[in-house]
Each structure stands twice: as C-alpha cells, then as structure tokens.
Amino acid sequence: MINRGKMGYSEGELESAGLGEMAEKKWKRKGKLGHGQIHGSNKMEVDETKRAEGSCGWIPYTPNNIHPKDQPLLDISSQAIWCLSSCKNGYGVDELMSDSVEKYWQSDGPQPHTIHLEFQKKTDVAMMMFYLDFKNDESYTPSKIQVKMGSSHQDIFFRTTQSFNEPQGWTYIDLRDKNKRPQRVFWIQIQMEIPKCEMPGIPIDAENLEIIETPSLFYEKLLVGFPYQSTRSIDTFFQELTSKTERRLALSSLYLGEGELEKNLVKKIRERMEQIDIEVTILLDLLRGTRKSSEGESSVTVLKPIADKAKIFLYHTPELNGLVKRILPQRADEIIGLQHMKLYIFDDNVLISGANLSDSYFTDRTDRWFLFKNCKPLADFFHEIIMTVGDTSFTVKNDQVVPSSKCDIHPYLGGSQSYRDLLKLRVETVIEKYKESRKNQEKTESETWIYPVLQMGLLGIHQEFQLLNQIFAMKNSEMKMTMASGYFNFIRDYEDLILMEGDYRLDILTASPFANGFFESKGFSKYIPPLYSNISEQFLLKQQRNNRQNVQMHQYFREGWTFHAKGLWAEHNNQIMTLIGSSNYGYRSVHRDLEAQIMVVTKDPKLVERLREEKNRLFEYSSLLDMAALQQPEHHIPPIVRVISRLVRTVPIPTHGTCAYDGLTMADPNDSLAYFQCCKNLWLPKFCVEGEVFDKIKLICVPNDVPPPPPVPINHHHHPSTTSMS
C-alpha cells in the first residue's frame, strides 16, 4: 500500500504471495519524486509532527549535493499518469495521492507490486523519497525497491535498486545521472519487494528420491506404480502394478495419447480397479483431451474402458470464451491457456515430470523424471490440487463431457472473473491446509528438503514466478546455474534480472531445430523451430549488449530424438538446488497455464552427485549455441517469423489495476505499440490508417488534421508545490 508523497509512497496495505502464501501485508511508507534543490539536514530521525506534515515532511531529508541550476526542488507527482499493478476498491490512486496518512493504496494481487508512471512530455526527474517505518510494520516494510526509467519499457536507459535494513523515517533514491543532474524521461516503473514467507518444506531421505534416466523407464514406472528395480521386464512391472497400488492413483497431464502404449496403460489401470477398490483420478486439459486424431480417437475415447469407475476431469481455461472460442481454430486454441501439470501419484509416491502421457514421451523424447517414494505430505498436497482443479472443471459422464457437479460456475459461460475467483479460493484453501499441517510438525534436521511450487498466474498464484525472481536476481559470482527448456522463451522479467542484475554463471540448454518436435511440420507449425531460433538470437544480442559474458546458450541434438527437458539447477558450496516440473519459464507458463514443480535442496553428497550426473547427461548431446551457430542453415529465420516473434513477445498482459483517473488510457509499460485502458481492462491499438491518429481521450482514430485536445486536468490529484518557484 502506498499513500501520497510526491510521486511516492506512504502507508497502505499489500497482499504478498511468497512460496505458496497469500496473505495481506501492511507497509508504511511515504515519499516524493522531485526536481531541483532544497536545503536541509540529511538526518533520518522521525517524529509524529513530521509524519503529520504529510507532503512537507520530506523536505529536511533530501541530499545536500543538489546542483545550483536545479533549484528549487519541485513536486511533479501530478504531472504523471499513474497506473497500479492492482488495487482493492476504495484503495487506489486517489488514496495513493492523498496527503492524509489515513488513506492508502492497497494492492489486490501477487508480487511484484508495481507502479507505472507516464509523463505527457519528457520530464526532468531527480529523486524519489520514501517514508519507511520498520518498527511500525516489522514484517512488511519493503526490503528492496527498484526503479526503472526511460522512454518506455522497451527503452530503459536507467535502473537502480536500493535495499533497506530496518529503515525508519524518510529516505530517498537518487535518480540523477553521474554528473548529479536530473534525467529526462517519459516513463517510470517502481517495483517493491516485500520479505516473503516460503511454502513449508518436507524433509526426505535422499534414498527416497529416484532419478529416472530414460523414457522407457518412465513408462515402466507408470505401469508398476513404484518399482524398486529398473532392470525388470515390462511383464514383471505389470504384475507389480497389481500388487503395489493399494489406495489411490492420480494422473495429471496435458493429454493422453491414442497409441498402443497409452491403451495398454489404461488396460492395466482397469485390471487393477477390478481387483481392488482404489480411487482413480485423471486430470487432463479439455482442449487437448478432446482433440481427435485422424482415426477419430482422443484422450477421452482412450479412457472409455475406465470411465465408469474412474474420475476423469477435463480443465477448460476460462479465458477461452465468447467469440474467440467460436472463431479460433482448434489447433490454436491452446495458446489461450492449458492444464499443464504433469503429476503422477501412486498411493504416497509422486512421480513428477515435464512429460505427457504419450508414446513419444515413453520412447524417444528427452525429458526429466523424479520419483519421490513414501512421501505422504507431498502426495496428499498434489492429490488435493488435482482433485480441486478437477472438481472445478468438466467431467466425463455417460460418454458426455459435462461440468462437474461441484463446479458452481461454468468454466467459460459463467463469467471469466467469477470462475477464476472460485478456483483461486479453492486452490488457496488447499495451500493453507498444507501450510497448517506442516506447522504442527516438529522441527527436523535433514540434508534434503523438497518444496511443492505452483504457478497459476491466471488465478494470481505466482509461487514459481516469485521464487525465480529471487533466484535470477542473485549476485554471487561463485554460484553456477543451469537452465533447460525445450521451448526457450524467457519473459522479460527473467531476462532483465539475468542479464542486468545477476552475476552468476548461467548455462542455458534448449532444443536445436532438429530436436524441436515441430521440425519439418506442415502448415503454420513449420515456423515454430525458426521462431525459437529468433528468440534465442534476440536473447544473445541482449546478452552482448549487457556484456554478460558468463551466460551461454547450448543446443541439444541427438539423432532421432526430440528434446523436452525443463528445469533449473543452482550449485554453491557443495549444495545443489533443482526445480523439476512442467514449466517452460515462458509467457504461457507464467500467465496462462496451470503449472506444478518441486524444488529439491540438498547437501547430501550422494544425491548432489546424482543430480549433477542427471544434468550432465543432458549436455552429452549438446553444442554451443552462439551467433555463429545461428548462421547455420537449420537456424534460418524467414522474415515472416521475425514479425511473428515480435508480435508474440509483445502481447499485452492485461492487469486488474486502476488508472489515475477514469476514462483515460495508459501506455502499456510492456509494449510501446499498444495502449491499455487500465480502468476498464481494455486493450486498444495505437496504430490507425494513414491520415488518422489515435486519440487517447476519445479512444478512437481521428483525422490527423484535427488539433489535439488540451491536456486533461487532474484537479483532484493536483497539489500545490511544497516549495516556491525562484
């Protein structure tokens, strides 16, 4: 939360989401952004009188080294258009800009909490001042504030980050250049970081983590539940499925293939259900699960032998509705959002992967597979997540796909926001239940801990996003990181942190065009491999511009195989952390899909070595991907792909924020080519036909010979300067 403080901050309330925790946070602060000079002490002592002075209390705490030409210091807060990352009703920009400390901004979304400001013309900016009160809000005073400035989000020429250690009173962030002069900007982003409470971990014995090396063994594990030897024949594994699975079996995947291996898996599940009373739950994505092959089969038809006894759920994103759902081609509808979690549960054993239930994932597709054995807390948590999403989805009943009896709001007919609110409430209830159950456990010493991590950006659940923001911002040149993704397409947040903030070594492994599953496809799909080549090229160019020499890319190629592995490894001081799961760390993973991962942290020497060996196996078939490699014929990028890539990477991200005043548009901070009417969540094009210009007030294209309207007054936000003009 933030109150008025001359383009700054005061008191308010934030909702913070740490690793799994969604809790309202209180944060006292007040601040200003000014230009010019004032004189006064730089002391940080605070009293209630100065606090009550509101907009004037900051004056004594500005720095002394203000250039004479920049006198006097002026408050320019009212000259900007403000847009918040989120807010609750009655706690928006009006309250943010109020001089009263009783009024404040209260966010209504996950971290990072941001404020975007746009000036109508280039404006000189010198500094920003904040009132921080750690004693009043010990837990939720910001630990870090980052400021970016430039012409737009795509043209940032200044950034600075300031950390705080138990601050109390007025402090400032200096935004001047190296000559101590103000900088001229159109656009400013202010991002706050609040200390977060992580999702509780689970101690495990390192021997209960089995790393599966090949796709065929992954398939065998699915058949048997949890075998203890990986050298047995498939026939033996079939028998073990019957003898080992006692209570529950839950499979969560994007889809189930239609081949013989998949049908054999369903057959074995059916046999087990006939022999013992076990609970079987299947969660797939509806868009992929009902898509028919050329033979007329789909995931739903393959599952028909168990449909009478098993719970078969099909998740449908609420964002695909109305006209878009009617006109979007079937093979393109999945770009809107998917159920993407890859979780396979047998009693108290959890097999997690990035692999789907399809024949190529069982034979010749490189992926990662971890089996956590005898881990009831983990199995219970993920089983409840699967059931919760399933109960709020469609189900297969009497050969028909109908909404679940517990789905109180239709996924795409009942209102997108209402459905999201319902599913979010239910998922957060599972998260809170898990956290509460871990609180009652005695403190345990263990060399290996595991942490479930969810990413459901559509619902405002950003555990993975927040975790990766912390990891990628680390400054430790001795740390070694490795990242893998078959579809490398970092969001800009990750790119900026890696290339502009971090100083660790990072190796990125992605699929070569030959190892991309869409290589030599027909139709539009043939452009997918060069699309990722173009994204890699842009990343490498950005890496060169930022002189981040210890970041390298590698490409995977193994004759006859495709590459689908995804994950993150961080090594330091004989300890290792790895993330394994469904996320590709791209735009869809962060904002559109339902993702699940597990973070493993260990200092057990044997497990550390096993994790290193697993990572090194992926690099056995890799080569350096640099600008020279991108000149090879397989990386040829057609001109149309460069255009498509630019459009794909600048798709506006709607936020549920608020404007500085009703009816006006705000330049989208993530895309200088579009405007966002943030009060109404409407995206509007900036471009008009020749001879016309876009009127940001009327929100229409008008002839370019029409004189522009005068600046809209913002009287209810205008406050007299705290100093007089000289």
Could you outline the blueprint of secondary structure elements for this entry?
Blueprint: E1 12-17, E2 22-27, E3 31-35, H1 48-52, E4 74-75, E5 80-84, H2 93-96, E6 113-125, E7 127-133, E8 144-152, E9 155-163, E10 168-174, E11 183-193, E12 202-203, E13 209-212, H3 215-224, H4 234-244, E14 248-252, H5 260-275, E15 279-285, H6 286-289, H7 299-302, E16 311-315, H8 322-327, E17 343-346, E18 349-353, H9 359-363, E19 365-366, E20 369-372, H10 376-391, E21 394-397, E22 400-403, H11 416-439, E23 448-456, E24 461-462, H12 463-472, E25 480-485, H13 492-501, E26 505-511, H14 528-545, E27 551-556, E28 562-563, E29 567-572, E30 575-581, H15 587-591, E31 595-602, H16 605-619, E32 622-625, H17 639-649, E33 658-659, E34 666-667, E35 674-677, E36 682-685, E37 692-695, E38 700-703
Parallel strand pairs: 14-15, 15-16, 19-28, 25-26, 26-27
Antiparallel strand pairs: 1-2, 3-4, 3-7, 5-6, 5-33, 6-11, 7-10, 8-9, 8-11, 12-23, 13-20, 14-17, 16-21, 17-18, 18-20, 21-22, 23-24, 23-31, 25-29, 27-32, 29-30, 30-31, 34-35, 35-36, 37-38
Helix pairs in contact: 3-4, 10-11, 14-17
